[in-house]
Write a structure and sequence with these properties.
about 425 residues; Nuclear Transport Factor 2, Chain: A; 4 domains; 10-stranded antiparallel beta sheet; 22 strands; globular; metalloprotease; M23ase beta-sheet core domain-containing protein; Cell_wall_metabolism_enzyme; M23ase_b-sheet_dom
Amino acid sequence: MKTSIYIAFMIAILSACSEGAVSQPGNVKDVSTPTDLNQAASKLQSVEADSKQQINPLQTTIITIEQGQSLIGVLKPFGFSANDAWRVRKLAKPTLDLDRIRVGDKVKVEHSGENLRSLTLATTFTERLRIERTSKGWTKRGYQLQVNSKPVIRSFEVSNSIFDSAQTNDVPLDIINQMIFAYSHFIDFQREIHKGDKVRLLFDEQVILSPDALQAQHSKPTQLRYARLFNNEEPIEIFHFEDEEVLDGFYFKNGRPARGFLLKTPLNGARLSSEFGHRKHPILGYTRLHAGLDFGAPHGTPIFAAGNGKIEKAGWGGGFGNRILIEHGQGYHTLYAHLDRFVVGLKSGDKVTQGQVIGYLGNTGLSQARHLHYEVHKNGKPINPLSLKNVAQTPLQGALYAKFQDLVIDVEDTLQTTRLAMRSNTR
């Protein structure tokens, strides 16, 4: 209010000076032109704008999306209109779908009073998307946080289960899944893991150097590099190796691939609830061959393709409910039954790789409880997946083997230096 009065007062003075100057002949140099008046008014308006900014300085607010909230709803107090929402939603795609913002997601808002200047959201662990209001409309800019990678060692002893023991000893869930998947090629977790077995893991972890407030997690595990399992007093060591000429995966120290032709257990964290063989059917009531294995696990648990192959069928299979059939070559086929649903877009003829998620555990068809029914067929006849003999795998040779051995030496050096660093930090 005071600024507006001041502007009016100054314009009146300038106008009076202009009239006085015109009435005096020969005093042309002192005449104030309309341009002068406009410039003066513009400067005074700038002063007024600066004054408003001082009253409402730029502020930063972190908003956490709660149950029942929408993006436009939480931004409305900052002058974010429905038209703004439409433009910002369109601008954010395909990097980010703002219609699928989830409970717990955070939004960084820069605003001056009720005037929203920008909003920033996390798109991945290290990537951010900043959407800013300018004089020409909304613009977007992506940027990445700087990270540092460090090796981490975790060692533990199995008590109830390898999964629970790993979690108890602060092994990240993603690393647990990588470990279980790697060992599931040649170890039956229901029969061959015992209390007292010892495990050592080496994995990489990304650490954000300058964390922001958009996520509480400032570090993230990435790749399991090495695992050692003392099982029946015999250490089983595997090393992660990748190269353009070979399949990315785990290898034994001698260069032999640490994977079987087919997985014995095509899901993580499962309990074997029914074995292969003749049994009384729980629903039909009579004895017949149970031609596979049943695994109990939480509803929606991801199901993996047991090996490389081609989808034969993915649909309803009568008593099997939602089921998938995969052809793997060399006379082998696998079946996955009672699924809740399939991976979106999965269809007959699709090629899949070992460990690829193909569906999710459910309770469809003739099923009393949620579980996966898993069958392996060889030349048209069902065989017990637990007695499946691994097809011979070709070991690394020549230059690839030499490169792999360099990696083994590097891993062993990292294990040694990391252990020494951990000991010195505990003293």
